[in-house]
Amino acid sequence: MRVLIQLRPSPDLVAAVADPGRTATTADVADGLPGVELDPAFVPVALPRPVPLAGGDPLSLNQPLDFSLAAEDASVLVRGTISDDELASRVTLLPALRPDVVGVFADPVIESTPTCGGDPPVGDWHDVERLLNVPGLHAEGLDGAGVALAVLDTGINAAHTARQLGRGVTLDAARCWSPSGVPGRPGEFEVDHGTMCAFDALIAAPQATLIDIPVLLSTRPGGSALDGLLSDAVAAFAHLRNVLDAQPAESRALVVNNSWGSFSAEWDFPVGHPGNYSDNAAHPFNLMVASLDRAGADVLFAAGNCGRECPDGRCAYPARPIVGANSHPKALSIGGIDVNGERVGYSSQGPGRLTARKPDVCAYTHFSGSRAFGEREPDSGTSAATPVAAGLVAAVRTRWPSTRLSPAQLRALLRRTAEDRSEVGFDYDYGYGIVDPAGIIAALQRRAKSVA
Question: Which InterPro entries does this chain map to (predicted)?
């Protein structure tokens, strides 16, 4: 089984891993872990320590938390494999044999979330543009200019995206990142799922700056070109923390689109095991999500395509399929509707695993847009709905950086202004409702007057 191993080495080594200007290898940090085949290609990642702002349980995400990367607080993650036959014993023995081992966690396969079924598109991206009130957003100066928009996926083909949009695309190669062993240059990957996500995000925020992070192009033994490992996302989020920290505080804005998830418990520890990912707020990746939110990033995840009417064939969770970070309390979980406002049958219903009230809101999907999969194939799945919502968030961030409107405040605003689709204010089909750009604009105008 592939695993992430959390260690607490000497403060000097922790500092070397946490400093983006220095290099520390897996051998430096974890050489000689008995029974573990370490992956030398994986660059160790510093994991910040959660620090409750007012006391309390440091592993509870439902409270104000800060995160410390100080050498005396942070820990380090490495990646490796433990034989399935020895897994249970090694997980127990490693901390006893090596006191610097803090924990052993699942490193599940992560996959993109295209839709099931072969239904034709409903409307096109110009319908989405109209429904998102893009002219109204732009009239308010909300077009994504100066906002970094990271797409963690299969890589972006910027030239194709620009052709389909009929306008230029901005991509910052210096801030892009790829897992070890993934060939290719930022913005020049094959047209695929990640290109669809980039296109859909730029509908509302055409001036946003793309950051290309092809986490789903990393391969595993026996794997395909469209899945990666959660450890690559851990490393990507560590990179994005550095991107965010390098921004001026007065204009800090980073939107992170994640149209992927874990479909099966096969690669995870059982629920209740301390190394579990799906239901465990203390898993390193779930802590990374909380840390990036605290630093000022807006993190969006697809709710997934395991809806009861038309589940993706890979869906293997018998219940509550919105798992792990896709159900994170510090992330926006996005469900899917068509341009007629109807929930698409593959959009996963809640409750979520880490937070019951998921999805948060719904956005548009199953429309003709990027043509990433051919002339007649729609941009579909919650994979498309998520970047549509991410583009709306990026548009808001043009004039409302995280120091002016925190990620938590923006999440609350999106939920509060959403077009309710039920009689109770929240339901497990639509969340709080459909994103409402006109409502968002009105709320921001009121907020601007109240703080003037």
Answer: Peptidase_S8/S53_dom, Peptidase_S8/S53_dom_sf, Peptidase_S8_Ser-AS, Peptidase_S8_subtilisin-like, Peptidase_S8_subtilisin-rel
